[in-house]
Amino acid sequence: MVRNPVRLFSAALLATSLVAAPAFGADTVKIGFITTLSGPAGIIGKDMRQSVELALEHLGGKMGGIPVEVIFGDDQFKPDVGKQVADEMLKKHKVDFVSGIIWSNVMLAVAPTVTAAGTMMIGTNAGPHQLAGEMCSERFFTTSWQNDSTPEAMGQHLQDLGLNDVYLIAPNYAAGKDMLTGFKRKFKGRIAAEVYTKLGQQDYQAELSQLRAKNPKAVFVFLPGGMGIQFLKQYSQAGLRGQYPLYSVYTVDELSLPAVRHAALGQFETRYWSPDLDNAANKKYVGDYKKKYGKLPSFYGAQSYDGMMLIDSAVRAVKGNLKDQKGMIAAMRKANYASTRGKYSYNVNHFPIQNYYLLKAVAGPGGAGDVPVMQIQKAVFKAHKDSYYTKCKMKW
Amino acid sequence: MNAILFVEQTLNGLQFGVTLFLMAAGLTLVFGIMNMVNLAHGAMYMVGAYLAVAATQWTGSYLAGVLLALVGTLLVGVVTEVVALRTLYERDHLDQVLATFGLILFFNELVAIIWGRAALFSDLPQALSGHIELVTNLRYPVYRLMIIIVGLLVALLLWYVVTRTRLGMLIRAGASNRTMVSALGINIRLLYTIVFGFGAALAGLAGVMAGPIYAVQPGMGELILIQVFVVIVIGGIGSIRGALAGAIIVGMVDTMGRAFLKPALGALISPTAAEAAGPALASMLIYLLMAVVLALRPEGLFPARGH
Hints:
The structure holds two protein chains of two kinds.
Chain A: E1 2-7, H1 11-19, E2 29-35, H2 42-58, E3 62-63, E4 66-74, H3 79-91, E5 97-100, H4 104-116, E6 120-123, H5 129-132, E7 140-142, H6 149-161, E8 166-171, H7 174-186, E9 191-197, H8 205-214, E10 218-221, H9 226-237, E11 246-248, H10 257-260, E12 268-271, H11 280-293, H12 299-317, H13 325-333, E13 345-346, E14 352-362, E15 373-384
Parallel strand pairs in A: 2-4, 2-5, 5-6, 6-7, 8-9, 8-10, 10-11, 11-12
Antiparallel strand pairs in A: 1-4, 3-4, 12-14, 13-14, 14-15
Chain B: H1 3-34, H2 41-59, H3 62-85, H4 93-115, E1 131-135, E2 138-141, H5 142-164, H6 166-176, H7 178-183, H8 188-210, H9 220-235, H10 240-268, H11 271-296
Antiparallel strand pairs in B: 1-2
């Protein structure tokens, strides 16, 4: 299911690269980028893909002087398909890096396959706790976060507010469990109920009826992609907005806001990145993305953009000698590139040590009728380490 | 568990049930009258949902969009019947399953080519996107209430058409003895086309109404089609009455299972075990019910007469 191999080297680029070709090393850097391009989650994959394409444009189609070829694969939101696509990337296309992956259950199938084959895996979204802990690998890096960290920040925020009787909702899969575990690690107040819904569920009316019957003080949800869009709309339609304050992670973002609009106004999220984060790399990324695609990118996109930049930093460090994996790993550990989140460092398990912010959905620049935008309120955690790195036995 | 919650979940179950009914009515008629296994029925549901989104955007009016989508699905159904399915009536069920499975792939690819693979999220007009307070503390979304009303009205209309009109008489006669009907000089082919077209339009209506609740995406029809087959197996193949009863039962059991199974299990076994077993068992419930019905009454609860 690999579609549209994007060959980003034009004849002109090729001609110039011949002049500057390195003495040894590969003639192309091949990257297999796996994400979800079909179904309700397809909007996430599209944003990631567009950000990868923008990153390559910013890099001039080359990493360390070598032309880059990115092959996009669709995991269809299924772990088995994701693994098949990864196998195809490794065996048929013989890629030098595999990157991408939105879903933790897909990641748990794909990452071990890739690293066991001796290839490097650069995750750009899912951060299941297994990969941060006992299953950590020197060939696995992520430009995103460990799943628990973002809800830990929201748990901390609600703890600081002194709330009680919070109602929790998450889909019944690897990341859903991680998210609620992370939330409860920092939130010590009473939990009204903990509800797991079917992954990919579209209709939440039955759950919303249960929620109202419990009459909680606040609601915390993790419902990424299409799930969140449907949930927020139905939350609003059922008249719950305004009645129970809703806090979320990975639910209200630049992808869901255009579909949800006013139903998300005033909504709080925690996140490591935001379009209004003030640094040069982010301004360039957000500005050019907006110019090219006519809308704001999401954190999924920012991570994927960073993923390409991280690979670029490694390829440059080994001067295009892609066989020097030790050298590339050493280079990536420095996180020596202009990240859209600003400067960060890597923990022993190759997960970022970074800040987490509290964000609020506020009216867009066009006023009340415009698509709302996310705005940073404050930093909840500074240089936060994930909760599993001590279980990772990797030595640097 | 309080009374208001129970009433609210009943409404939720009813709303899911009538959506299933609109699908099941067409499927059961086609199966009962033409003896045709039509897996592509879900494709009509998807076509209805897509046409509604497209027509609403094109005309700028929700009502016009819905009407255009219904007419459009009817036409797509008629064309499909005339072009593809006519040749299959005399063939055995396996050929029909293969051919209509091919139609599923065809329609899924077609909408993916036209509208792309990513899901579309449709918006409701302002008047339907709110909620009303039915009794104190029982707030219900207006749109879902409208689905229930439309679904029940369609059921009433179908009952009238099938039992009180000449067309309905022919449909019932066709279901009982097709050879006799054509021997009496009735154009049975035309009757088949009409039944198939209206079946498709009903599926389209279900798709139109489900659009704003579910995401509109390629393959959305197959997700609901399996549940619709459960409905007609429970209700009895070829029977409208059975389709209605089966749809309401499946809608209720699924919704109630999602809502009350976990707390109910929690009272019987340990809460942690209920936590794990509840959601899993809830999604199995309708299939368990189908197995029980098949074991006790293989004909379904309300089998069509004359078979």
